[in-house]
Write a structure and sequence with these properties.
Layout: E1 21-26, H1 31-45, E2 48-53, H2 64-70, E3 79-82, E4 93-94, E5 101-102, H3 103-111, E6 118-120, H4 128-133, E7 147-152, H5 160-173, E8 177-181, H6 191-200, E9 205-208, H7 212-220, E10 225-229, H8 237-240, E11 243-246, H9 254-266, E12 271-273, H10 284-297, E13 302-303, E14 305-306, H11 308-311, H12 318-332, E15 336-339, H13 349-366, H14 390-399, E16 406-410, E17 413-418, E18 421-425, H15 428-436, H16 446-465, H17 487-505
Parallel strand pairs: 1-2, 1-3, 3-6, 7-8, 7-15, 8-9, 9-10, 10-11, 11-12, 12-13, 14-15
Antiparallel strand pairs: 4-5, 16-17, 17-18
Helix pairs in contact: 2-3, 5-6, 6-7, 12-13
Length: 506
């Protein structure tokens, strides 16, 4: 019963025909769940199959050499499907000298098949049905049409070195341009130095100030966009020789924006228009209508939307907000957004915009909703839960013969399973207390207790948030997910090797 892993760990499923016979290889603990998934897929897709349950508890511990000693492939098999965790190891070389071949080739020879008929499925057997149907294939999300401008607020309050380091992180997250946000209360005498340092490291730079002196110094040092221009400074724009962002004098005054646009056009100043997105409570809905009106009036001009007024000024995680705003931009042909990530709930806004712009571009280009395209912005809850059937849990509890502990969390209940042990409850402290009163608990040392506490804490968090819990796997937090080591499997493998070494010594 291996844990789930990204789809990239598995190979493409075979094309199914009435002659297809798939031979699945698994361990004892995954047998019930695998058979359930394969039987459903067989009825749906019309293929025959066989399942070989290896004499090993956890399929993820299967090695190619061990597999060759136990593999039994019936006649008429068209493909052998191994657990996903075998993917990397079967490509390793086997043998020496002129006899060096991959383990995949040796397995294929033993099965009397060609190497391309030896496949590795998904790591988690509960994904077999989706894998066989091809639903795990990924869409092309490489294209986008929206520029991300990442603002560094109050940049002059930071050192040049810190600004450059922050700009590099923002670029790595997807920013196309770095916006130097100046301090309205104090002129930055070194703004040219800040700009030049960013340009030196390959950044495209915009300057965010109404101080014409700061603008001139920044533009001289390589800034190529000025935020922003209205009645107060539009007469100077022709002298700067760069693109500007035109805004109304006050957000709901489109007449003043028209006047600024007309002047800039007469002076042939390149521009993009931003009617100003207002926060909720200050005319948010009306400001969205202004974007549609400006797009109607000026179909030939580029537009920008500053989205920080919504993400920074709303008590809500920013990912969903960014997704919706970039969808509006894509539909309105607004091809640049200005964002910042100061408040903690919006601290990954640049990365969220990077993901969102690809999703919305694909959605509009292909005429499909942005669903089942990517899980990177599904951060709080998981897209789908994959519970085990009650029969599978009971079979697991009855089939375990070793003292390693398995943890399953679903339907508000944590199951702790080992040889002769099946504890259930929703309180990890109570479960551990009950475990320590059992005779079988003599193997729970401090390290083991820490591990169980850590995993049950993850399980509790998963159930509270509606997330999938898989033992020894990181909870999925979208693009913020950080992988974890397979602590339980590594521990078991290490102890097994130590046992073999002791036997050999004797």
């Amino acid at each position: 019963m291996a844990s789930s892993a990204p789809d990239s760990e598995s190979q493409t499923a075979p094309a199914i025909t009435p002659q297809t016979h798939l031979h699945f290889v698994t361990g004892r603990l995954a047998e019930v769940a695998l058979r359930t998934q394969v039987e459903q897929a067989s009825r749906r897709d019309g293929f025959s199959y066989s399942v070989q349950v290896m004499p090993i508890t956890v399929a993820a511990l299967i090695t190619p050499k061990w597999l060759l000693r136990h593999l039994e492939v019936p006649a008429g098999v068209s493909h052998v499907v191994l657990p996903g965790y075998c993917q990397s190891s079967i490509e390793d070389p086997s043998g020496s000298g002129s006899d060096v071949v991959s383990w995949r080739t040796r397995i294929a020879q033993a099965a009397n098949l060609s190497s391309d008929k030896i496949l590795c499925g998904p790591n988690d057997c509960r994904d077999i049905g989706a894998w066989l149907s091809g639903r795990t294939s990924k869409p092309d999300l490489t294209k986008h049409s929206i520029e991300i401008i990442a603002e560094i607020n109050h940049a002059p309050r930071m050192s040049i070195e810190d600004v450059v380091a922050l700009a590099e992180r923002l670029r790595n997250d997807g920013a196309d341009r770095i916006d130097l946000g100046c301090d309205p209360a104090r002129r930055c005498e070194a703004i040219g130095d800040y700009t030049a340092a960013l340009v030196q490291f390959g950044h495209r730079v915009s300057i965010d100030t109404f101080d014409s002196w700061e603008v001139e110094k920044a533009v001289d040092a390589g800034a190529s966009l000025v935020l922003s221009v209205n009645e107060s400074n539009r007469n100077l724009a022709a002298d700067w020789g760069c693109e500007v962002v035109a805004i109304p004098d006050v957000p709901d005054d489109l007449k003043s924006l028209d006047e600024t646009v007309a002047l800039l056009e007469r002076n042939q100043v390149p521009m993009r228009l931003d009617p100003i997105l207002e926060p909720i409570g200050f005319g948010f809905g009306a400001s969205l209508l202004r974007y549609t009106e400006v797009r109607r009036r000026y179909p030939e001009h580029a537009m920008m939307m500053g989205i920080g007024n919504l993400t920074e000024l709303t008590d809500v995680d920013s990912a969903g907000v960014n997704m919706v705003l970039l969808a509006l931009c894509e539909e309105f042909s607004i091809h640049s957004v200005l964002t910042t990530q100061v408040i903690n709930w919006a601290s990954s806004s640049v990365k969220e915009c990077e993901v969102a712009r690809r999703l919305v571009h694909h959605s509009l280009a292909e005429g499909v909703p942005p669903k089942r395209l990517s899980e990177e912005l599904v951060m709080l809850r998981d897209p789908k839960l994959r519970p085990f059937a009650a029969e599978a849990i009971e079979a697991l509890a009855a089939g375990v013969r070793d003292n390693n502990y398995r943890i399953i969390a679903q339907d508000g209940v944590i199951h702790l399973i080992s040889a002769g042990v099946h504890l259930q409850g929703n309180d990890p402290f109570a479960i551990l207390d009950e475990l320590l009163r059992l005779p079988q608990s003599d193997n729970v040392d401090a390290s083991h207790a820490f591990y169980l506490g850590y995993e049950m804490a993850k399980a509790t968090t998963a159930m509270q948030l509606g997330k999938q819990y898989d033992q020894d796997q990181a909870l999925k937090w979208g693009h913020l997910t950080q992988s974890e080591d397979l602590h339980r499997l590594a521990r078991k493998s290490r102890h097994g090797n130590e046992g073999k070494a002791r036997k050999q010594k004797k």
